Amino acid sequence: MTIKHITVQQAHQQQGSGAKYLDVRSIPEFENGHPEGAFNIPLMHADPETRQMRPNPDFLDVVRATFPPETALVIGCQMGGRSAKACELVGTAARCCSRSSSGP
């Protein structure tokens, strides 16, 4: 599975061509601002006791339930690390994805 790294502008163009934008930031980050039309499926959640970020065990199941296999996805986060990891996970599920570092 090839992961293509793209700019924010390219991500916007791909959305205009029908790609779905998957924002993998936390819910509070998403609520502070996100690209228009973005879906939020956090890759990680804050542990309520430790406040440390923990992997979202349901991430891949929710992605599969939300998007049909043929869906073109642009996956983004704040700095690029989470979106790169999400692309790897989604890629193992035989889905094409790109990532875009994008802030709110």
Layout of secondary structure:
Blueprint: E1 3-6, H1 8-16, E2 20-23, H2 27-31, E3 39-40, E4 44-46, E5 53-55, H3 59-66, E6 73-77, H4 81-92, E7 97-101
Parallel strand pairs: 1-7, 2-3, 2-6, 6-7
Antiparallel strand pairs: 4-5
The outline comes out as globular
Determine the mean pLDDT.
84
Report the CATH topology name. Answer: Oxidized Rhodanese, domain 1
CATH 4th-level superfamily = Rhodanese-like domain
Strand proportion, as a percent range, falls in: 25-35%
Structural class: alpha/beta
Percent of residues in helices comes to 25-40%
Count of DSSP E strands? 7
Describe this structure in words.
By secondary structure, the protein is an alpha/beta fold. The chain has one domain (3-101): Oxidized Rhodanese, domain 1 (3-Layer(aba) Sandwich). It is built from 4 helices and 7 strands, in the order βαβαβββαβαβ. The protein has helices at 8-16, 27-31, 59-66, 81-92; strands at 3-6, 20-23, 39-40, 44-46, 53-55, 73-77, 97-101. The chain has a 5-stranded parallel sheet with strand order 1-7-6-2-3, sandwiched between helices. The longest helix is centred in the C-terminal third of the chain and has 12 residues, at 81-92. The mean pLDDT is 84.
Please supply descriptive tags for the structure shown above.
104 residues, alpha/beta, Oxidized Rhodanese, domain 1, five-stranded parallel β-sheet, two-stranded antiparallel ribbon, 4 helices, 7 strands, 25% strand, globular
